[in-house]
Amino acid sequence: MAKYIYPAIFTPEVNGQFSICFPDIENCFTCGDNLEDGIRMAEDVLSLTLTQLEDKGHKIPNASAINDLTTENGAFATYISCDTTAYRRLMNNMAVKKTLTIPSWLNESAMAAGLNFSQVLQDALKQQLNVT
């Protein structure tokens, strides 16, 4: 689990769209509706692919120097970075059961109001941690 930087080749397509590939990583490619979307999609596919390689215990390939890449037909190369640790956190939304204790009167009031305890706790934790 680490931070990585790899060169990606962006090839312009029709209507401002881009095809994107990572020459150093087999089967790592995506596309974007525009340059901004393409960069976002490239970060996502790079994170996903490298996370899978880490999980399977495969060797992470070395990144080429961007100047060693050749492009044609208006394509260009740029670096894309990712953090597989942050990606795992983002993707790991699995529910975890927690046991908690509240006063009986508060439990009865919340149940009478039809509150979802899990949702209330999630909302409160997000507010306390300043996360969305």
Task: Give an account of the 3D structure.
This protein has 132 residues and is an alpha+beta fold. The chain contains four helices and four strands. It has helices at 35-56, 84-91, 104-112, 117-129, and strands at 3-12, 18-21, 29-32, 76-83. The protein has a four-stranded antiparallel β-sheet with strand order 3-2-1-4. Strand 2 and strand 3 (29-32) form a beta hairpin. The longest helix has 22 residues, at 35-56. It starts with a strand and ends with a helix.
List its traits.
single chain, 132 residues, alpha+beta, 4-stranded antiparallel beta sheet, 39% helix
What's this model, at a glance?
The chain is an alpha+beta fold.
The amount of helix comes to 25-40%
The helix/strand order is EEEHEHHH
Tally of strands: 4
Q: Between the first and last Cα atoms, what is the distance in angstroms?
A: 24 Å
- Overall shape: it is elongated
- The strand order across the widest sheet is 3-2-1-4
Write the layout of secondary structure elements.
Blueprint: E1 3-12, E2 18-21, E3 29-32, H1 35-56, E4 76-83, H2 84-91, H3 104-112, H4 117-129
Antiparallel strand pairs: 1-2, 1-4, 2-3
Helix pairs in contact: 1-2
